[in-house]
Amino acid sequence: MIYKNAINLLCTFSLFVYGLQYPTYYILLILPLALIFCFLNYKQFIHKDMIRVVVLLLFLFSYVAIGNVYGLVEWSFLYTASIMIVLIYIYAIFSPLNIRVSIFSLVYGFIVFVALSTYLTSRVEPLLIINSRKILNAWTFGIHNSPLFGVFLSFGLCLFISSVFLNKNIMLRMLISLPLFILSVFCLIKFQSRGPFLVFAIITLMSVVKFRKYLVLNNNRLTVYFMLFLSFLYFVSNFIIANYSELGIDVYTDRLQEQGFESDRFRTWMIGVKSIFFSPLGGREIALNNNLTGYIHNAYLDISYISGVVPLIFLVLFYFLHIKEIKFFFNSNINVDYKVLMFIFGLCSFINLLYEPVLQGSPVFFTLHIYFLGLILNHNRRGEHDF
Question: For residue 133, what pLDDT is reported?
Fold first, then answer.
Protein backbone atom coordinates (compact mmCIF):
# COMPACT_ATOMS: atom_id res chain seq x y z
CA MET A 1 0.00 0.00 0.00
CA ILE A 2 2.86 2.39 0.88
CA TYR A 3 4.56 1.59 -2.44
CA LYS A 4 1.33 2.21 -4.37
CA ASN A 5 0.71 5.52 -2.59
CA ALA A 6 4.29 6.62 -3.27
CA ILE A 7 3.91 5.87 -6.99
CA ASN A 8 0.60 7.75 -7.12
CA LEU A 9 2.15 10.73 -5.34
CA LEU A 10 5.10 10.75 -7.73
CA CYS A 11 2.76 10.59 -10.75
CA THR A 12 0.62 13.40 -9.36
CA PHE A 13 3.69 15.56 -8.76
CA SER A 14 5.05 14.78 -12.23
CA LEU A 15 1.81 16.02 -13.87
CA PHE A 16 1.82 19.17 -11.75
CA VAL A 17 5.44 19.88 -12.72
CA TYR A 18 4.58 19.19 -16.36
CA GLY A 19 1.85 21.81 -16.08
CA LEU A 20 4.33 24.31 -14.63
CA GLN A 21 6.38 23.99 -17.84
CA TYR A 22 9.70 24.82 -16.21
CA PRO A 23 12.26 24.41 -19.04
CA THR A 24 13.79 20.92 -19.31
CA TYR A 25 12.65 19.83 -15.85
CA TYR A 26 8.97 19.64 -16.70
CA ILE A 27 9.56 16.58 -18.88
CA LEU A 28 12.25 14.90 -16.75
CA LEU A 29 9.72 13.13 -14.50
CA ILE A 30 7.32 12.22 -17.30
CA LEU A 31 10.12 10.71 -19.44
CA PRO A 32 11.31 7.93 -17.08
CA LEU A 33 7.80 7.17 -15.80
CA ALA A 34 6.44 6.77 -19.34
CA LEU A 35 9.31 4.48 -20.29
CA ILE A 36 8.96 2.41 -17.09
CA PHE A 37 5.19 2.05 -17.56
CA CYS A 38 5.74 1.00 -21.16
CA PHE A 39 8.40 -1.57 -20.16
CA LEU A 40 6.22 -3.07 -17.43
CA ASN A 41 3.31 -3.39 -19.88
CA TYR A 42 5.31 -4.12 -23.04
CA LYS A 43 3.11 -7.03 -24.16
CA GLN A 44 -0.03 -4.91 -23.98
CA PHE A 45 1.80 -2.01 -25.64
CA ILE A 46 2.96 -4.16 -28.56
CA HIS A 47 -0.38 -5.85 -29.17
CA LYS A 48 -2.78 -2.97 -28.49
CA ASP A 49 -0.99 0.36 -28.69
CA MET A 50 1.85 0.00 -31.18
CA ILE A 51 -0.27 0.85 -34.22
CA ARG A 52 -1.63 4.02 -32.63
CA VAL A 53 1.86 5.16 -31.57
CA VAL A 54 3.28 4.45 -35.05
CA VAL A 55 0.51 6.52 -36.67
CA LEU A 56 1.17 9.34 -34.20
CA LEU A 57 4.89 9.18 -35.04
CA LEU A 58 4.10 9.22 -38.76
CA PHE A 59 2.04 12.37 -38.26
CA LEU A 60 4.85 14.09 -36.36
CA PHE A 61 7.61 12.91 -38.70
CA SER A 62 5.76 13.92 -41.87
CA TYR A 63 4.91 17.31 -40.38
CA VAL A 64 8.56 18.00 -39.50
CA ALA A 65 10.08 16.45 -42.64
CA ILE A 66 7.84 18.27 -45.13
CA GLY A 67 7.94 21.52 -43.17
CA ASN A 68 11.74 21.31 -43.06
CA VAL A 69 11.90 21.05 -46.86
CA TYR A 70 10.28 24.50 -47.02
CA GLY A 71 12.47 25.80 -44.21
CA LEU A 72 9.42 26.26 -41.96
CA VAL A 73 10.07 23.58 -39.30
CA GLU A 74 13.41 22.68 -37.70
CA TRP A 75 14.46 19.05 -37.26
CA SER A 76 14.99 19.84 -33.57
CA PHE A 77 11.19 19.95 -33.26
CA LEU A 78 11.15 16.20 -33.91
CA TYR A 79 13.58 15.53 -31.06
CA THR A 80 11.89 17.81 -28.55
CA ALA A 81 8.18 18.46 -28.97
CA SER A 82 7.47 15.28 -30.95
CA ILE A 83 9.07 13.00 -28.36
CA MET A 84 7.18 14.83 -25.63
CA ILE A 85 3.85 14.29 -27.44
CA VAL A 86 4.46 10.54 -27.80
CA LEU A 87 5.67 10.17 -24.20
CA ILE A 88 2.65 11.95 -22.70
CA TYR A 89 0.40 9.65 -24.72
CA ILE A 90 2.15 6.52 -23.39
CA TYR A 91 2.12 8.00 -19.89
CA ALA A 92 -1.64 8.57 -20.08
CA ILE A 93 -2.30 4.99 -21.23
CA PHE A 94 -0.46 3.35 -18.33
CA SER A 95 -0.64 5.92 -15.50
CA PRO A 96 -2.06 4.48 -12.23
CA LEU A 97 -3.83 7.75 -11.37
CA ASN A 98 -7.57 8.12 -11.60
CA ILE A 99 -9.21 10.61 -13.93
CA ARG A 100 -9.95 13.24 -11.30
CA VAL A 101 -6.40 13.41 -9.95
CA SER A 102 -4.86 13.32 -13.44
CA ILE A 103 -6.89 16.24 -14.75
CA PHE A 104 -6.72 18.52 -11.72
CA SER A 105 -2.97 17.92 -11.21
CA LEU A 106 -2.29 19.02 -14.79
CA VAL A 107 -4.63 21.99 -14.75
CA TYR A 108 -3.38 23.30 -11.40
CA GLY A 109 0.14 23.28 -12.80
CA PHE A 110 -0.96 25.21 -15.88
CA ILE A 111 -2.91 27.82 -13.94
CA VAL A 112 -0.11 28.39 -11.43
CA PHE A 113 2.37 28.86 -14.29
CA VAL A 114 0.15 31.35 -16.14
CA ALA A 115 -0.72 33.20 -12.93
CA LEU A 116 2.98 33.57 -12.03
CA SER A 117 3.77 34.79 -15.54
CA THR A 118 0.90 37.28 -15.38
CA TYR A 119 2.03 38.57 -11.99
CA LEU A 120 5.62 38.94 -13.20
CA THR A 121 4.53 40.86 -16.30
CA SER A 122 2.26 43.15 -14.26
CA ARG A 123 5.11 44.05 -11.95
CA VAL A 124 8.03 44.25 -14.40
CA GLU A 125 6.45 45.31 -17.73
CA PRO A 126 2.83 46.35 -17.06
CA LEU A 127 2.47 48.18 -20.38
CA LEU A 128 3.56 45.08 -22.27
CA ILE A 129 0.41 43.20 -21.36
CA ILE A 130 -1.91 46.22 -21.73
CA ASN A 131 -0.66 47.67 -25.01
CA SER A 132 0.72 44.62 -26.81
CA ARG A 133 -1.18 41.75 -25.15
CA LYS A 134 2.12 40.00 -24.56
CA ILE A 135 3.36 38.28 -21.44
CA LEU A 136 6.68 37.36 -19.87
CA ASN A 137 7.35 33.68 -19.24
CA ALA A 138 7.84 33.30 -15.48
CA TRP A 139 10.82 30.95 -15.97
CA THR A 140 12.64 32.13 -19.10
CA PHE A 141 11.51 35.80 -19.18
CA GLY A 142 10.82 35.33 -22.89
CA ILE A 143 8.00 37.36 -24.43
CA HIS A 144 4.96 35.44 -25.70
CA ASN A 145 1.56 36.31 -27.11
CA SER A 146 -0.97 36.15 -24.30
CA PRO A 147 -3.60 34.14 -26.28
CA LEU A 148 -1.26 31.11 -26.20
CA PHE A 149 -1.31 31.38 -22.40
CA GLY A 150 -5.04 32.01 -22.40
CA VAL A 151 -5.86 28.60 -23.86
CA PHE A 152 -4.60 27.01 -20.64
CA LEU A 153 -6.88 29.28 -18.61
CA SER A 154 -9.91 27.96 -20.47
CA PHE A 155 -9.46 24.73 -18.47
CA GLY A 156 -9.61 26.72 -15.23
CA LEU A 157 -12.94 28.16 -16.35
CA CYS A 158 -14.44 24.98 -17.74
CA LEU A 159 -13.58 22.61 -14.89
CA PHE A 160 -15.77 24.75 -12.66
CA ILE A 161 -18.71 23.49 -14.73
CA SER A 162 -18.24 20.04 -13.18
CA SER A 163 -19.39 21.54 -9.87
CA VAL A 164 -22.95 21.93 -11.12
CA PHE A 165 -23.42 18.19 -11.56
CA LEU A 166 -24.17 15.66 -8.87
CA ASN A 167 -21.16 13.88 -7.39
CA LYS A 168 -20.19 12.45 -4.02
CA ASN A 169 -17.93 15.37 -3.06
CA ILE A 170 -19.69 18.31 -4.64
CA MET A 171 -18.65 20.87 -2.02
CA LEU A 172 -15.04 19.70 -2.16
CA ARG A 173 -15.17 19.95 -5.95
CA MET A 174 -16.38 23.54 -5.67
CA LEU A 175 -13.55 24.43 -3.30
CA ILE A 176 -10.96 22.77 -5.53
CA SER A 177 -12.20 24.41 -8.71
CA LEU A 178 -12.80 27.86 -7.17
CA PRO A 179 -9.12 29.01 -7.17
CA LEU A 180 -8.74 27.80 -10.75
CA PHE A 181 -11.82 29.72 -11.83
CA ILE A 182 -10.94 32.99 -10.08
CA LEU A 183 -7.31 33.02 -11.25
CA SER A 184 -8.39 32.20 -14.80
CA VAL A 185 -10.98 34.99 -14.93
CA PHE A 186 -8.63 37.70 -13.74
CA CYS A 187 -5.70 36.57 -15.90
CA LEU A 188 -7.97 36.51 -18.96
CA ILE A 189 -9.16 40.02 -18.18
CA LYS A 190 -5.50 41.06 -18.05
CA PHE A 191 -4.95 39.39 -21.42
CA GLN A 192 -8.09 41.05 -22.87
CA SER A 193 -8.99 37.57 -24.12
CA ARG A 194 -12.37 36.65 -25.56
CA GLY A 195 -11.86 33.13 -26.92
CA PRO A 196 -11.64 31.25 -23.61
CA PHE A 197 -14.88 32.84 -22.38
CA LEU A 198 -16.59 31.77 -25.59
CA VAL A 199 -15.19 28.24 -25.13
CA PHE A 200 -16.53 28.30 -21.56
CA ALA A 201 -20.01 29.26 -22.80
CA ILE A 202 -20.02 26.56 -25.49
CA ILE A 203 -18.84 23.78 -23.16
CA THR A 204 -21.27 24.86 -20.44
CA LEU A 205 -24.17 24.61 -22.86
CA MET A 206 -23.04 21.25 -24.25
CA SER A 207 -22.43 19.81 -20.76
CA VAL A 208 -25.82 20.90 -19.48
CA VAL A 209 -27.55 19.40 -22.52
CA LYS A 210 -25.73 16.07 -22.28
CA PHE A 211 -25.82 15.65 -18.49
CA ARG A 212 -28.96 17.66 -17.63
CA LYS A 213 -30.48 14.92 -15.47
CA TYR A 214 -27.44 15.10 -13.16
CA LEU A 215 -27.63 18.83 -12.50
CA VAL A 216 -27.57 19.86 -8.83
CA LEU A 217 -30.80 21.75 -9.51
CA ASN A 218 -32.51 18.37 -9.34
CA ASN A 219 -31.61 18.18 -5.66
CA ASN A 220 -33.09 20.87 -3.39
CA ARG A 221 -30.42 20.69 -0.68
CA LEU A 222 -27.53 20.82 -3.13
CA THR A 223 -29.22 23.63 -5.03
CA VAL A 224 -29.19 25.75 -1.87
CA TYR A 225 -25.49 24.98 -1.31
CA PHE A 226 -24.66 25.81 -4.88
CA MET A 227 -26.56 29.12 -4.81
CA LEU A 228 -24.76 30.08 -1.60
CA PHE A 229 -21.49 29.20 -3.23
CA LEU A 230 -22.26 31.34 -6.30
CA SER A 231 -23.26 34.22 -4.04
CA PHE A 232 -19.94 33.93 -2.22
CA LEU A 233 -18.11 33.88 -5.56
CA TYR A 234 -20.04 36.96 -6.73
CA PHE A 235 -19.15 39.03 -3.64
CA VAL A 236 -15.51 37.95 -3.71
CA SER A 237 -15.26 38.90 -7.39
CA ASN A 238 -16.83 42.31 -6.81
CA PHE A 239 -14.53 42.99 -3.87
CA ILE A 240 -11.41 42.18 -5.87
CA ILE A 241 -12.52 44.18 -8.90
CA ALA A 242 -13.47 47.17 -6.75
CA ASN A 243 -10.18 47.19 -4.83
CA TYR A 244 -7.72 46.28 -7.55
CA SER A 245 -8.29 48.60 -10.49
CA GLU A 246 -4.95 47.57 -12.03
CA LEU A 247 -6.62 44.37 -13.18
CA GLY A 248 -7.34 46.15 -16.43
CA ILE A 249 -11.14 45.92 -16.39
CA ASP A 250 -11.52 49.19 -18.27
CA VAL A 251 -9.06 48.19 -20.98
CA TYR A 252 -10.84 44.88 -21.42
CA THR A 253 -14.35 46.37 -21.61
CA ASP A 254 -13.11 49.03 -24.05
CA ARG A 255 -11.81 46.28 -26.35
CA LEU A 256 -15.12 44.45 -26.18
CA GLN A 257 -17.04 47.62 -27.01
CA GLU A 258 -14.79 48.44 -29.97
CA GLN A 259 -14.31 44.96 -31.46
CA GLY A 260 -16.92 42.70 -29.89
CA PHE A 261 -16.07 39.21 -31.09
CA GLU A 262 -14.81 40.33 -34.49
CA SER A 263 -11.44 38.84 -35.38
CA ASP A 264 -9.00 38.56 -38.25
CA ARG A 265 -9.12 34.79 -37.69
CA PHE A 266 -12.14 34.46 -39.98
CA ARG A 267 -10.07 35.77 -42.89
CA THR A 268 -7.07 33.56 -42.13
CA TRP A 269 -9.29 30.49 -41.71
CA MET A 270 -10.59 30.97 -45.24
CA ILE A 271 -7.02 31.18 -46.49
CA GLY A 272 -6.26 27.97 -44.63
CA VAL A 273 -9.21 26.18 -46.23
CA LYS A 274 -8.16 27.41 -49.70
CA SER A 275 -4.60 26.20 -49.12
CA ILE A 276 -5.86 22.63 -48.61
CA PHE A 277 -7.22 22.59 -52.17
CA PHE A 278 -4.80 24.91 -54.00
CA SER A 279 -1.64 24.05 -52.07
CA PRO A 280 -2.09 20.49 -50.73
CA LEU A 281 1.66 20.01 -50.28
CA GLY A 282 1.95 22.94 -47.88
CA GLY A 283 4.73 25.50 -47.97
CA ARG A 284 2.65 28.55 -47.04
CA GLU A 285 2.03 29.23 -50.74
CA ILE A 286 -0.87 31.61 -50.06
CA ALA A 287 0.28 34.73 -48.19
CA LEU A 288 -1.51 35.72 -45.00
CA ASN A 289 -0.12 39.25 -45.09
CA ASN A 290 2.44 41.42 -46.85
CA ASN A 291 5.22 40.21 -44.56
CA LEU A 292 4.54 36.54 -45.41
CA THR A 293 4.38 35.78 -41.68
CA GLY A 294 1.77 34.74 -39.16
CA TYR A 295 -0.44 31.72 -38.59
CA ILE A 296 -3.90 30.56 -39.61
CA HIS A 297 -4.88 30.37 -35.92
CA ASN A 298 -6.33 26.90 -36.29
CA ALA A 299 -4.09 23.98 -35.36
CA TYR A 300 -5.38 21.73 -38.16
CA LEU A 301 -5.32 24.37 -40.89
CA ASP A 302 -1.87 25.50 -39.73
CA ILE A 303 -0.56 21.95 -40.07
CA SER A 304 -1.79 21.68 -43.67
CA TYR A 305 -0.72 25.27 -44.43
CA ILE A 306 2.86 24.48 -43.42
CA SER A 307 3.32 20.79 -44.28
CA GLY A 308 0.36 19.89 -46.47
CA VAL A 309 -2.40 17.35 -46.09
CA VAL A 310 -0.17 14.29 -45.53
CA PRO A 311 0.46 14.88 -41.79
CA LEU A 312 -3.16 15.97 -41.43
CA ILE A 313 -4.31 12.61 -42.84
CA PHE A 314 -2.15 10.74 -40.31
CA LEU A 315 -3.55 12.87 -37.47
CA VAL A 316 -7.15 12.19 -38.53
CA LEU A 317 -6.31 8.46 -38.76
CA PHE A 318 -4.89 8.62 -35.24
CA TYR A 319 -8.19 10.11 -34.02
CA PHE A 320 -10.16 7.49 -35.95
CA LEU A 321 -8.35 4.70 -34.08
CA HIS A 322 -9.86 6.04 -30.83
CA ILE A 323 -13.50 6.50 -31.86
CA LYS A 324 -14.61 3.08 -30.67
CA GLU A 325 -12.88 3.59 -27.31
CA ILE A 326 -14.48 7.02 -26.82
CA LYS A 327 -17.95 5.62 -27.52
CA PHE A 328 -17.34 2.75 -25.11
CA PHE A 329 -16.24 5.13 -22.35
CA PHE A 330 -19.24 7.46 -22.53
CA ASN A 331 -21.73 4.59 -22.95
CA SER A 332 -20.36 2.61 -20.00
CA ASN A 333 -21.82 2.57 -16.49
CA ILE A 334 -18.98 4.38 -14.77
CA ASN A 335 -19.43 7.15 -12.24
CA VAL A 336 -20.99 10.14 -13.98
CA ASP A 337 -18.41 12.32 -12.24
CA TYR A 338 -15.69 10.86 -14.45
CA LYS A 339 -17.83 11.19 -17.55
CA VAL A 340 -18.46 14.87 -16.86
CA LEU A 341 -14.78 15.59 -16.20
CA MET A 342 -13.63 13.78 -19.31
CA PHE A 343 -16.34 15.39 -21.44
CA ILE A 344 -15.26 18.86 -20.29
CA PHE A 345 -11.53 18.15 -20.50
CA GLY A 346 -11.81 16.55 -23.93
CA LEU A 347 -14.00 19.28 -25.42
CA CYS A 348 -11.79 22.02 -24.01
CA SER A 349 -8.61 20.45 -25.39
CA PHE A 350 -10.11 19.97 -28.87
CA ILE A 351 -12.07 23.24 -29.20
CA ASN A 352 -9.00 25.34 -28.39
CA LEU A 353 -7.21 23.71 -31.32
CA LEU A 354 -9.72 25.39 -33.60
CA TYR A 355 -8.63 28.97 -32.93
CA GLU A 356 -4.95 28.88 -31.91
CA PRO A 357 -1.79 27.53 -33.66
CA VAL A 358 -0.88 25.47 -30.62
CA LEU A 359 1.36 22.86 -32.29
CA GLN A 360 3.77 25.62 -33.30
CA GLY A 361 3.15 28.06 -30.47
CA SER A 362 2.58 25.72 -27.53
CA PRO A 363 3.37 22.02 -28.11
CA VAL A 364 2.59 21.39 -24.44
CA PHE A 365 -1.01 22.43 -25.02
CA PHE A 366 -1.17 20.24 -28.13
CA THR A 367 -0.33 17.25 -25.94
CA LEU A 368 -3.50 17.73 -23.89
CA HIS A 369 -5.94 16.28 -26.41
CA ILE A 370 -3.44 13.44 -26.99
CA TYR A 371 -3.39 12.92 -23.22
CA PHE A 372 -7.20 12.85 -23.19
CA LEU A 373 -7.23 10.01 -25.75
CA GLY A 374 -4.67 8.10 -23.69
CA LEU A 375 -6.79 8.50 -20.55
CA ILE A 376 -9.76 7.04 -22.41
CA LEU A 377 -7.75 3.91 -23.23
CA ASN A 378 -6.44 3.75 -19.67
CA HIS A 379 -9.86 3.77 -18.07
CA ASN A 380 -11.46 1.35 -20.52
CA ARG A 381 -8.79 -1.23 -19.73
CA ARG A 382 -8.62 -0.78 -15.98
CA GLY A 383 -12.35 -0.70 -15.49
CA GLU A 384 -14.63 1.16 -13.11
CA HIS A 385 -13.54 -0.62 -9.93
CA ASP A 386 -9.95 0.68 -10.12
CA PHE A 387 -11.28 4.21 -9.79
Answer: 77
